Amino acid sequence: MNNRLTMEDVTMAYDNRVIAEKLNVTIPDNTFTAIIGPNGCGKSTLLRGFSRVLNPQHGKVLLDGRQLDSFKPKEIARELGLLPQTSIAPEGIRVYDLISRGRAPYQGLIQQWRASDEDAVAKALASTNLTELAARLVDELSGGQRQRVWVAMLLAQQTPIMLLDEPTTFLDIAHQYELLELLRAFNEAGKTVVTVLHDLNQAARYADHLIVMKQGQIITTGAPQDVITTELVKEAFGLDCIIAPDPVTGTPTVVPLRPERVEI
């Protein structure tokens, strides 16, 4: 199968303020891809371009060789699922009802609810450990629980390509790894997962493909063992470090060196 999602010579801008330009990148099918880079480098902008939330100022975003802006919204929603950085739930909505909205792309004009919809929501609840909270109001949940509800809505959408913008935000460290394990499991089951991550060691442990950005440019792509080097970390993040193997997975681990102490 050809790689389904690509950008060709893309420039992304907000109100004519260019954020990223001349982007040429392909998302390999059936991989766990992590987009990494310093704050403000264009990671979220790249993801929004792939999801059609932000249309390119120049260039093409292609899905199966066809420009993304030529698809109808429901066609896109059946292929690409997006979890943005921040989402606001309607006031008074319950967990089950919010997750059920992930099934909207499959509903006809009469909004018929099918057994397949029920099954998809139940699986999403179970996968995110939310089954016991299904009847709770979303407003009553903690920040980490609310984040899991949004992830569950994305899972219920059951798209072959999942795009997540900093999905570990608001999660404590245990739930961060729980979520990353879940995303890895979905990838191993055949889904293409693309996520923006800040933690380099989490990206190296869970992703099998990295996209590294700096100042609106893609500076390199590839497997973590090829990409995560002391030179790359210094170039992209300005951080002196050593690279050591993760004692559990053997993947590259960034160990920062202590800077010279500042006199106070």
TrEMBL record:
GO terms for cellular component: plasma membrane. Residues 5-240 form the ABC transporter domain. Keywords: ATP-binding, Cell membrane, Ion transport, Iron, Iron transport, Membrane, Nucleotide-binding, Transport. It comes from the Bacteria. Pfam families: ABC_tran (PF00005). One of its GO terms (molecular function) is ATP hydrolysis activity. It is a peripheral membrane protein. It is found in: Cell membrane. SMART domains: AAA (SM00382). GO terms for biological process: iron ion transport. The keyword Cell membrane applies. This is Iron ABC transport system ATP-binding protein. The lineage of its organism: Bacteria, Bacillati, Actinomycetota, Actinomycetes, Mycobacteriales.
